[in-house]
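Exercise 7.
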Amino acid sequence: MEAVNAIGRRKAAIARVFVTEGNGKITINKRDVENYFPSSILQYVVKQPLNKLGVAEKYDIRVNLNGGGFKGQSEALRLAIARALVKINPDDKSALRTEGFMTRDARVVERKKPGRPKARKRFQFSKR
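Solution. The predicted structure, written as tokens, is:
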């Protein structure tokens, strides 16, 4: 099997993954996943699609990850891994879709408007 690549986005984060056959090693920006995401919750989020299909020890995953914060990055990586697994075996798509791993969460930060301190917040109104 040659490397299968996929892309995942969430908020401002972009994850490009390259999946090859191996023994379950995930490398993010040339660092180990435990090192890149010290939080066990974020590690769990990243590995959800692999654990759902029971293939966590079957593939090596190399990731280029940039932009956003750690939560957005972990969810972008989850989407990218799910998309790559579907490219490898299209039969897995329904199982991943029921868990919500195939859905791109399009919510992004609303832009700041002129004459306002934030996107919707207004400066304090003074009657006099």
